[in-house]
Amino acid sequence: MKFGLPCVAVFCLLLATSLGHAEVATPADAAKLDIPVGDVPDGYVKVDGFVTDWASAQTVESRALIRAEAEYDWTGPRDCSVLVQAQADRAFLYLAIEVRDNVVVGKKGRKAGDRVELWIDGGEPAGKRRVRMIELGLGEVPDGGKPTVTYGYPKNLVRKEIEGVKADGAMRKTGYFFEVALPLASLSDPAPGVEPLGVAIIVRDWDYDDANEDEAAVATAPFDARKERSPATMGRLLLPSTVDPLGGFYQTVPAAKGTRVVSEAWVQVSGDARRERVALLEKWLVVAGRGVGDGDFYYYTLPHGPNYTYDSMELRDLTGDGGAEFILRYSVSHPGQIQQQFLAIYRLFFDSINLVFLAEAGNTGPGWTVTNQVSFDPKGPGGTTRIVVSKPVATGVTKKTYTDVDADLITDWDKVLLPWKAPPSRTYEWQDTQFIKR
Ligand SMILES: [Ca+2]
Ligand SMILES: [Ca+2]
Ligand SMILES: [Ca+2]
């Protein structure tokens, strides 16, 4: 709020000038706040402007001025600040936004009026237009009606309807209140999966109390909505599905809880452009994502035993279809300090995992080693990658001193591993469903 009398304002301006210019707030003045999203049953939140369904939701508050001069255009949190709550079911993100505002006004000439901007970053899978904005306007709320909910950015969405959106609001002594249900699909394209989304909520404030009034704004993140629009400056929208993507798996396989996570990654497995969470645990390979498997995840129990150790996971597209294959290295220990090293390649699908390649990559014992270099040549036919296994090299061991630890196994790796048995080098090419020796 500003001073009503112009002469007082002029006096203040002179005073400010003589004392040095007042600080103009910028987006960088806000802290980066995450917005926790409560998990509620489908349809639990009623969009009616009442807060009975918000009692258990956490509240995020921002009093951080990011625009206007604090001295002239913003007198404190009662002039403009915001309290945000969020909940979600399987179809909607619900927001309860309480704006503290001393003078609630609509659009007037060049003054855009009081409003709230919800900025969302859909992440890498959403591509070039990953950042979008949904604007919540006062609409008819001052007259007991509903607020407006429209896309404000990017341009290609501005006139598009938000299908299925529900909104209500209420005036408060201290400002105004919005309750909104946004279909999850309206937040990003592709719709949110298990990957966290970025979020910045900006409340813009006009009070019409001075001819020279500037727009004031507070925000939940140091996000510059008018220039860089950098996702890196947003907080995270902590949807239930994004907080603990492996939660469903741990519930189904309690024995996995607390075991070592060897490696985790975001992967585009198949289906839509949303990425899945892939994790290599002690003896499990888990793929989690919206709509994946039965219950948003599936898992595969890897070959294992007390003498198995899974060492690493690497993801790369070997089959040229844009989906990543899962390259896994593990070792198997045997009596006499002998250890075999294996390389296994799995292909991931939307509901299953297939083993498409397996090779023994090395063998070590006390004072000796046998190694096969496995390398990847991206110049295979049709955009596929060839697997090249080099001629084995033995150090400190010969045909006579070698101990065969897996002679009883069905797969006799020795034929390809041992220099005195193996061919000089082998190349495998992708054919339909597996890698075949060329
Ligand atoms: Ca309600
Ligand atoms: Ca105000
Ligand atoms: Ca206002």
Count up the helices.
5
C-alpha-based Rg, rounded: 30 Å
Average pLDDT confidence is 90
CATH fold field value of the largest domain: Immunoglobulin-like
In this entry the ligands are: calcium ion
The 3D shape can be described as elongated
**What is the CATH architecture assignment of the largest domain?**
Sandwich
- Secondary structure category: mainly beta
Sheet-strand content, in percent, reads 35-45%
Low-confidence segments, given as residue ranges, are: 1-20
Q: Assign a percent range to the helix content.
A: under 10%
Terminal Cα span? 78 Å
The CATH class label of the largest domain is: Mainly Beta
Main sheet? 9 strands, mixed
Quick structural gist:
By secondary structure, this protein is mostly beta strands. Helices cover 7% and strands 40% of the residues. 38% of the residues are buried.
Structure description:
The chain has 438 residues and is mostly beta strands. The chain has helices at residues 6-19, 70-73, 240-243, 247-252, 414-417, and strands at 24-25, 35-36, 38-39, 60-62, 65-69, 80-88, 92-101, 115-121, 131-137, 148-153, 166-172, 175-183, 197-205, 216-219, 235-238, 261-267, 276-281, 284-288, 297-301, 308-316, 325-334, 338-348, 353-365, 368-371, 374-377, 386-389, 393-395, 426-431, 434-437. The strands form 5 sheets. Strands 1, 2, 5, 8, 9, 10, 13, 14 and 15 form a 9-stranded mixed sheet that branches. Strands 3, 4, 6, 7, 11 and 12 form a 6-stranded mixed sheet that branches. Strands 20-21-22-23-24-27 form a 6-stranded antiparallel sheet, with no helix packed on it. It binds calcium ion (3 copies). The site of one calcium ion (CA) has 6 residues, from loops.
